Amino acid sequence: xxGILYDARLVKAYEGLLAxxxxxxxxxxxxEALWEELVFDRELLDEFVFYLEHHFLRDTVKCxxxxxxxxxxxxxxxxxxxxDSGKNTDVCNKDRMVxxxxxxxxxxxxxxxxxIKRMTLGKGMDQA
Length: 128
Hints:
Layout: H1 8-23, H2 28-38, H3 42-54, E1 62-63, E2 66-67, H4 68-83, H5 94-110, H6 112-120
Antiparallel strand pairs: 1-2
Helix pairs in contact: 1-2, 4-5, 5-6
């Protein structure tokens, strides 16, 4: 059949996303919405594939100077604050934090000001 492209890497990445979503207790619908955004951002998709293969962030994707690691740490801090634990415990789902960091990066690229404000909220006047 002419005109049909099949990239097994994308299929594996999609399956990896669904698996992480299941581990993270994220609904399949949420994961599919994330996937729809990832496939249109090649740089972010490459970062996601790297994460699936190596289980750490390369942190090459930036928006306004912030990378995925910054968003991951921000997610972790939010979790610690909500959980009132002061630190990430064994029950903290780090895969969920990574998925949410990818979601946040997609959204941050669309409207950076909102995320910059959220991430800098709570810093003292002496901190930039």
